């Protein structure tokens, strides 16, 4: 017994198999969606009292939010110029600190240069004093030797 299958019949068979698979997937999808809806219904029923209370308070909450928003808006409008002034003052103080620190560094450089120059001068003077002392000692030795020889 031999049976011949045409390409059309083969493609039709494949399409039927795909349709059956898709139908199975849709059944699983509908089942999961049904579980999700039933869980949402249970939660809504369980929290019905709280949901009703919240819904009743929504107008009051909305009014409070509007008041808070207006208060914050007024506060920002009132504080905005002061913040701008504070930023300007901070910038001015920073510039003054920069200028002052430059002056201090210049003064420190000047003092360190003066101290260095003074140290060099003292060192030169100490050398000159020691030279003078040696010269005076030599003169005293010459005078002493002159008196001894006479």
How would you briefly describe this protein structure?
The protein is mainly α.
Chain-wise SSE layout:
Blueprint: H1 7-46, H2 48-149
Explain what you see:
There is one protein chain. This protein is mostly helical and 150 residues long. 95% of the residues lie in helices and 0% in strands. The protein has helices at 7-46, 48-149.
Whole-Å distance between the termini? 165 Å
Average pLDDT confidence is: 87
Radius of gyration: 52 Å
Basic shape: elongated
Question: Which residues form runs of ≥5 with pLDDT under 50?
Answer: none
How many alpha or pi helices? 2
Helix-strand topology string:
HH
* Number of extended strands: 0
Characterize the largest beta sheet: strand count, sense, and whether it forms a barrel: none
Class computed from helices, strands and strand pairing: mainly alpha
Helix content: over 70%
The share of residues in extended strands comes to under 5%
Key structural traits:
mainly alpha; 150 residues; 0% strand
């Amino acid at each position: 017994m031999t049976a011949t299958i045409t390409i059309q019949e083969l493609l039709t068979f494949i399409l039927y198999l795909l349709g059956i698979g898709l139908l199975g997937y849709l059944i699983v999808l509908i089942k999961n969606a049904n579980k999700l809806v039933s869980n949402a219904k249970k939660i809504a029923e369980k929290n019905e009292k709280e949901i009703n209370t919240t819904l009743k308070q929504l107008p009051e909450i909305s009014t409070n939010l509007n008041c808070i928003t207006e208060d914050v808006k007024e506060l920002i409008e009132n504080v905005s110029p002061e913040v701008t002034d504070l930023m300007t003052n901070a910038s001015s103080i920073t510039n003054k600190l920069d200028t002052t620190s430059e002056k201090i560094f210049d003064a420190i450089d000047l003092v360190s240069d003066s101290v260095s120059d003074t140290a060099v001068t003292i060192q030169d003077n100490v050398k000159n004093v020691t030279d003078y002392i040696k010269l005076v000692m030599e003169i005293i030795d010459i005078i002493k030797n002159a008196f001894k020889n006479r």
